[in-house]
Amino acid sequence: MDEDLKREFDAARLKHILFKARLRSFLYGADGEEGPVRDPDECSLGHWIRDVALARFGHYLEAQQLDQLHRRVHEEANRLMDLHQAGHADEALRGLRATNPLTDEVLRLLNTLEHKLRKEAR
User: Fold this and answer.
1) What whole-number distance in Å separates Cα of residue 39 and Cα of residue 44?
2) Which end of the chain is less congested by CB atoms within 10 angstroms, N or C?
3) 3-state secondary structure string, the chain?
């Protein structure tokens, strides 16, 4: 179970990093599918949160907090994307830097939840 758990959480962290890269690319002018960046239920981390974190570990406060925080990250991503599309690219890019505490907290919650699960598995 320990290796499976590690793979699950490594995959979740990677999904989050890819989301951040897609948002950054969009704000720097690259074309791409907006849905997974705009919609927390459409992005790959959102699928993981629903299908793994909440389904299997939903009784942990961190899993519930992760879902809520993930949704807040997407709300902020939508705001930044809207700014960019309205011609305020510089403001959107400044806002991107301001999202770092939120995105760092997503990683912290993933790490904390994984640590708790590993501790219980021993």
Assistant:
1) 10
2) C
3) CHHHHHHHHHHHHHHHHHHHHHHHHHHCCCCCCCHHHHCCCCCHHHHHHHHHHHHHHCCCHHHHHHHHHHHHHHHHHHHHHHHHHCCCHHHHHHHHHHCHHHHHHHHHHHHHHHHHHHHHHC
pLDDT over threshold 90, residue 120? no
Q: Determine contact, residues 17/24, Cβ cutoff 8 Å.
A: no
- Separation CA 40–CA 5 (nearest Å): 23
Closest alpha carbon to 64 in 112, 96, 120: 112
Contact 75, 99 (CB under 8 A): no
C-alpha 120, offset from chain centre: 25
pLDDT for 2 equals 81
- Distance between CA atoms of 49 and 70, rounded to whole angstroms? 9
- Could you give phi then psi for residue 103, rounded to 5 degrees? -70, -30
| pLDDT tens profile 67-84 | 999 999 999 999 999 999
